[in-house]
């Protein structure tokens, strides 16, 4: 009995020591008692040094948490029990969160740095007048490929290139219904927000003929597979392509001319926010050109901050693969929230497509 | 096992190789200056330095350990009392019902436990964070402790208790000086099993974390979604070394005072 009590005491003492150490660490990370904000972001999507700088500048401590999908993020916010002050969802999720009344309207007078954002990225259909959201990063959906692993000269300026019989078992697709069905629609010249059953049927049929060329349909592992030369061609997002290229310089990225998806991740203030004022300060801080430039450099996606571009490596900014000019952008479409019914239809078609693979 | 032949030794070696190779592969690349696990460039400590510089990561490691220690301590206390109650219950029907309910919790998937806790906490208005994680960890550890302690209690002969009673022991004496020392190995086993369950639990924790509180498994998961960085390797390497150290320490302690864990009354 004595040993048991002694062991239990030891456990309690160790826990207490660790708690004390944690409190001390928390203090050194930011000023004790200062107000805090909680930022809920995608993993590896913000330069941690900037959080420290924000604390130094404003005295507000940042609690940083990460999520891995728009859906998981929305569930956590909807369930309550959390107090996220900033979240960074993609555009279609913002429409959905607006419908569910999960967002707090922004006070633009507290965000003077908004003037640095390229007007092209403001006032978009998913959030007219930027009432609820401020663009954070943007990018495209396209084809990453490794010319060294391909016989022949491909530039993937057309989706049609993917259907080339010579590319048997060479293409990997990202495991995401909107991207894959969207590619099918785009390759036929239709809108990737199509709700026309006939167009969707055509796209499904077209996709089914791609089956012999598809090697795999996977998630984030795409990046490593491309880096390790285990695959030659991948349907992916521009940021992931940038990740791949930072390790394997043989790789290239192209956005086909028929059109593709243009996406945005945006900063919003969820209804659960406890420190709305601090959240506005954080948004304003992130829009500062120097901060935005440093962040874009660290993350590797494209920034919508036009004044930050002047501070960045010109070689990167002039790279049409990451910063396509407006003419190309006009071919691109932003996802619209199609409603649960249509989304279910997309998902079902995608599932059927995946089943046809086997 | 009478006489291990060459073939058997070879097989054993192979099994251990397969079990440990991934871990050593991971640790090997934690010293890679190249930044990926594709090719080894040169030796560096930089990823280990990155672990220690990242205060958030260290706080998460501490949180994980605190939750594991406290939840297994609480679960052991509750579990031992529960096992005692089950064994010394007069009503046979109630007893077998309780035991089945306990076993159902062990086999039910973590995802369902996690989801139901999330619903419960939100319904009660409990803020997600340290408390919610601790409570749910206690909950899934209790059945394990019960299961570890129960066999010890069942194998204990009733005449031990009768003898103690004959010699004038009070109810309290019987519990603290006869029963508990006898089942001590079970209690320790239950505690350590609960500890390991809590340390590596992902599914339940994933649902009930929030408000800046996170444990290691959940954090590594969200880090890995964005591509494995070698910081994860370095951290895993450190944890592996600490675990090996703990196991060695446990054996050293065990050898020195055999009585501590074998439960022979001193």
TrEMBL record, chain A:
Protein keywords: Periplasm, Signal, Transport
Positions of transmembrane segments: none
GO biological process: polyamine transport
Subcellular location: Periplasm
Keyword Transport appears in the UniProt entry: yes
A Pfam family this chain is assigned to: SBP_bac_8
CDD domains: PBP2_PotD_PotF_like_2
UniProt-listed Gene3D superfamilies: Periplasmic binding protein-like II (3.40.190.10)
Amino-acid positions noted as binding spermidine in the UniProt annotation, renumbered to this chain: 44, 92
Keyword Zinc-finger: no
Molecular function per GO: polyamine binding
One GO CC term on file: periplasmic space
Name of the featured protein: Spermidine/putrescine transport system substrate-binding protein
UniProtKB/TrEMBL annotation, chain B:
One of the protein's GO biological processes: transmembrane transport
Membrane-spanning residues: 12-31, 57-89, 101-124, 130-150, 187-208, 228-253
Membrane topology category: Multi-pass membrane protein
UniProt subcellular location: Cell membrane
Stretches assigned to the ABC transmembrane type-1 domain: 61-250
Record GO cellular component, one term: plasma membrane
Alphabetized UniProt keyword annotations: Cell membrane, Membrane, Transmembrane, Transmembrane helix, Transport
Listed InterPro entries: Bact_Polyamine_Transport, MetI-like, MetI-like_sf
Main location: membrane
Ribosomal protein found in the keyword field: no
Keyword match Transmembrane helix: yes
SUPFAM superfamilies documented for this protein: MetI-like
PROSITE patterns in the cross-refs: ABC_TM1
Family: Belongs to the binding-protein-dependent transport system permease family. CysTW subfamily.
Name of the protein described by the UniProt record: Spermidine/putrescine transport system permease protein
Species assigned in the record: Edaphobacillus lindanitolerans
């Amino acid at each position: 009995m004595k040993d048991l009590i002694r062991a239990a005491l030891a456990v309690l003492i160790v826990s207490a020591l660790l708690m004390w150490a944690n409190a001390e660490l928390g203090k050194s990370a930011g000023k004790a008692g200062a107000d805090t904000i909680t930022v809920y972001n995608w993993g590896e999507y913000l330069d941690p040094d900037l959080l420290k700088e924000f604390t130094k500048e404003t005295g507000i401590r940042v609690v940083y948490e990460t999520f891995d999908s728009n859906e998981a993020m929305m569930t956590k916010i909807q369930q309550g029990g959390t107090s996220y002050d900033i979240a960074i969802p993609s555009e279609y999720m913002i429409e959905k969160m607006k419908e569910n009344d999960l967002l707090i309207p922004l006070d633009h007078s507290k965000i003077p740095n908004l003037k640095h954002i390229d007007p092209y990225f403001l006032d978009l259909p998913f959030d007219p007048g930027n009432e609820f959201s401020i663009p954070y990063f943007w990018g495209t959906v396209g084809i990453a490929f490794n010319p060294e692993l391909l016989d022949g000269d491909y530039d993937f300026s057309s989706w049609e290139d993917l259907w080339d019989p010579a590319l048997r078992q060479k293409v990997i697709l990202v495991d995401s219904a909107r991207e894959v069905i969207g590619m099918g629609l785009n390759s036929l010249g239709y809108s990737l927000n199509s709700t026309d059953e006939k167009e969707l049927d055509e796209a499904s049929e077209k996709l089914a003929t791609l089956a012999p060329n598809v090697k795999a349909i996977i998630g984030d592992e795409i990046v490593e597979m491309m880096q390790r030369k285990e695959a030659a061609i991948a349907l992916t997002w521009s940021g992931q392509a940038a990740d791949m290229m930072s390790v394997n310089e043989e790789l290239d990225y192209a956005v086909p001319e028929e059109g593709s998806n243009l996406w945005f991740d945006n900063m919003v203030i969820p209804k659960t926010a406890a420190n709305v004022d601090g959240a506005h300060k954080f948004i304003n801080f992130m829009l500062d050109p120097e901060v935005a430039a440093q962040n874009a450099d660290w993350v590797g996606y494209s920034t919508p901050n036009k004044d930050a571009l002047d501070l960045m490596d010109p070689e990167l900014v002039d790279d049409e693969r990451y910063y396509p000019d407006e003419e190309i952008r006009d071919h691109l479409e932003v996802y619209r929230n199609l409603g649960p019914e249509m989304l279910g239809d997309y998902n079902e078609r995608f599932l059927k497509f995946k089943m046809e693979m086997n | 096992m009478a006489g291990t032949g060459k073939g058997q030794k070879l097989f054993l070696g192979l099994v251990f190789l397969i079990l440990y190779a991934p871990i050593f592969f991971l640790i090997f690349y934690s010293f890679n200056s190249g930044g990926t696990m594709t090719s080894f460039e040169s030796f560096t400590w930089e990823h280990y330095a990155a672990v220690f510089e990242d205060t958030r990561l260290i706080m998460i490691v501490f949180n994980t350990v605190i939750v594991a220690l406290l939840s297994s301590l609480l679960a052991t206390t509750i579990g031992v009392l529960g096992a005692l109650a089950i064994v010394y219950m007069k009503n046979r029907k109630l007893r077998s019902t309780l035991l089945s309910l306990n076993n159902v919790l062990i086999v039910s998937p973590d995802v369902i436990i996690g989801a139901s806790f999330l619903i419960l906490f939100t319904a009660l208005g409990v803020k997600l964070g340290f408390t919610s994680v601790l409570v749910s960890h206690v909950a899934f550890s209790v059945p394990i402790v019960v299961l570890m302690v129960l066999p010890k209690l069942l194998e204990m002969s009733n005449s031990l208790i009768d003898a103690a009673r004959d010699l004038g022991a009070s109810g309290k004496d019987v519990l603290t000086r006869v029963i508990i020392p006898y089942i001590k190995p079970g209690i320790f086993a239950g505690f350590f099993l609960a500890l390991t369950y809590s340390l590596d639990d992902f599914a339940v924790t994933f649902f009930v974390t929030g408000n800046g509180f996170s444990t290691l498994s959940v954090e590594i998961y969200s880090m890995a979604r964005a591509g494995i960085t070698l910081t994860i390797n370095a951290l895993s390497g450190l944890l592996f070394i600490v675990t090996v150290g703990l196991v060695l320490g446990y054996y050293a302690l065990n050898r020195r005072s055999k009585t501590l864990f074998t439960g022979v009354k001193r």
